[in-house]
Amino acid sequence: MDDLTENTTFADLALRPELVEALSSLGYEEPTPIQRESIPPLIAGQDLLGQAATGTGKTAAFALPMLEHLEGDNRSKNPTGLILVPTRELAMQVSEAVHKYGRALGARVLPIYGGQPIGRQLQALSRGVDVVVATPGRAVDHIKRGTIPLKNIAMVVLDEADEMLDMGFAEDLDAILGALPTERQTVLFSATMPKRIESLARRHLSNPTTIRIEAPVVAKGDAPKVRQLAFMVPRSHKPAALGRILDVEAPAAAIVFCRTRLEVDQLTETLNGRGYRAEALHGGMNQEGRDRVMARVRSGNADLLIATDVAARGLDIDLLTHVVNYDVPSAPESYVHRIGRVGRAGREGVAITLAEPREHRLLENIQRVTGDKIAIEKVPTISDLRNRRMELTLGTLRETLLDDDLDRYRTIVESLTDEFDLFEVALAAVKLTHEATTGAEDEVEIPEVEVRRPKDRKNDRGERGDRDRGDRGERGDRDKKGKKNKDRSIGVDSTRLYFPIGRSAQVRPGDLVGAITGETGLAGKQIGSIEIADKFSLVEVPEKSADDIIRAMKKTTIKGRKVVPRRERFQRFER
Ligand code: AMP
Predict the structure, then answer these.
(1) Residue where one domain finishes, among candidates 451, 468, 497
(2) DSSP string of 426-476?
């Protein structure tokens, strides 16, 4: 498979038909780069060390080969695939994805994580499971009890391995990997490749294929003249946010890239509902349909083209002013390629990217590769939108006053001024113009997502912050106490400290508060939410006191142990 190119399809990757069918029904049109590179060696049974962040499509990159190897009807009850992930959230997310891809194969997938009653997990295991998706802590619990049969495990995946190490799961990972059959395939995905990951890989992977999606080098002079903006938007608010952004940017002609066909169809409908003339273009359409769409775009009868990468490949549309990435592209190459469609021939173009908070790292990666700054902007508020609409109305009226022959309306104005003040008549006319030109008001507030960068981010880690990082029950605790924790929050000028001591050392919130207040003179009320997991605790403290607390903790002990905190490495995004 040396000849994998941009045009490689899922069928070219020699996946079984049930999987190709599942991907097509999900609207995936082509493999992402990490999928293109990982799937063939994984199907061939090799170990793999891959560098990839969330949003690159890495879940399918390991899930599809795992499902490819599932046996037919007479499957044993014992799992053949094990996927280790750092958090409960990710365990659920990955297990849903594996289930979705493997539905036609009858894949039995079980997420196991702390906080969920172990009885339910045991029942499912005894009924029979093909793929277990587990957090390391809970996996170790099961292994110790002998409740996960490991003897048939043929493939193990360490997903987000750097995060698992950061969370103190190194020993658990060694224990789990040590308990697996030696004849197995091992896959390790990590967003970063620090020395500890390399050493983990050396210990547990055998002669792995190494994959890192290399970035293209963009020659300076070739770079298009493009204003690059990004908006951080929670997924559920994306359609409304895009509508607003387009209202304010008022593109003459724009192309909006989506990941899947389904997304293309849904967004086209939403934007048409908002008064745009939007046309969908994707690989599920026949040539005739596509030609019709392109004709409408080229003649100026459509202002927005909503497309997948595949469908838009090779299209050359001269008049484009804006390119929109409805999701952050899964690879920097794709970003560069997309934005190259505007800013041609010296004209300025605009590239807009909507990013979910968890995709922040992908955005940083793109900036690093392109060397261009992407300005993070705020989604226009309702009042921005109103102002913009007023401007549009003003402009429309001004043009009409300057250019049009208005004489034939004179009789209407004259008859109205018998009854009303001229100024009132003008106001009514403006109202009608405004409503006709700017459409319905959109009153839904879109939450603001703020990107916070801890000052001491030494190792360029930009983690998701919208995710539970706990294991062995702490999420359960957080669910119960979540409200209380939130109430305790001390606001935006805070940071979280990671204390490497937790429930397994019987630590309680009072111990942490006591140590901090005792050593630093900080008042108890200046300390915010506290989350206690099995092996660590996270304590919210005022940003300006963080360094003092770290220094002070070096001189004291908690529960008889020296416990030196550090700033939480995960980047937090807050609403
Ligand atoms: P991940 O990096 O695995 O978290 O995937 C990011 C998102 O991309 C998920 O919403 C997937 O459903 C989606 N996705 C993964 N592979 C593809 C593909 N080949 N085409 C379109 N979407 C994809």
Answers:
(1) 451
(2) HHHHHHHHHHHHH-----------EE---TT--S------SS----TTHHH
Paired tokens of 220:
């300076």
Q: Is the CB of 8 under 6 A from ligand 1?
A: no
Answer whether 478's CB lies under 8 Å from 485's CB: yes
The residue among 457 and 384 whose pLDDT is bigger is 384
- Verify whether ligand 1 is closer than 6 Å to residue 259 (CB atom): yes
From 15, 20, 25, 32, give the residue whose CB has the most ligand 1 atoms within 8 Å, as the site to mutate: 32
Strands 278-281 and 226-232: unpaired
Q: Where are the beta strands (DSSP E) in 183-282?
A: 185-190, 209-212, 226-232, 254-258, 278-281
Asked if the structure places residue 468 within a domain, the reply is no
Residue carrying structure tokens 């890989």: 201
Q: Which residue has the higher pLDDT, 88 or 425?
A: 425
Give the pLDDT of residue 339.
87
> Residue 440: its pLDDT value, please?
58
Beta strands at 322-325 and 278-281: parallel, antiparallel or unpaired = unpaired
Q: Which of 139-153, 294-308, 559-573 has the highest mean pLDDT?
A: 139-153
Report yes or no on 57 lying in a domain: yes
- Domain coverage including residue 115: 10-212
Q: Does 78 score more than 90 pLDDT?
A: yes
Residue 446 near residue 377 (C-beta atoms within 8 A): no
Which residue minimizes the CA distance to atom 15 of ligand 1?
57
Q: Is 283 in the pocket of ligand 1 (CB under 6 A)?
A: no
* Ligand 1 in reach of 54 Cβ (< 6 A): yes
Q: Determine the distance separating the centroid of ligand 1 and the alpha carbon of 169, expressed in angstroms.
A: 27
Judge if 446 and 546 occupy the same domain.
no
Query: Counting atoms of ligand 1 from 1, which one is nearest the CA of 59?
Result: 3
* 13 Cα–ligand 1 center, Å: 17
Beta carbon of 334 within 6 Å of any ligand 1 atom: no
What's the confidence (pLDDT) of residue 304?
A: 93
Q: Ligand 1 mean position to 187 CA, how many Å? A: 18
- CA 25 / ligand 1 centre spacing (Å): 13
Furthest CA-CA distance within the chain = 96
Looking at the fold, whether 402 and 354 belong to one and the same domain comes out as no
| Cα Rg of the chain (Å, integer) | 28
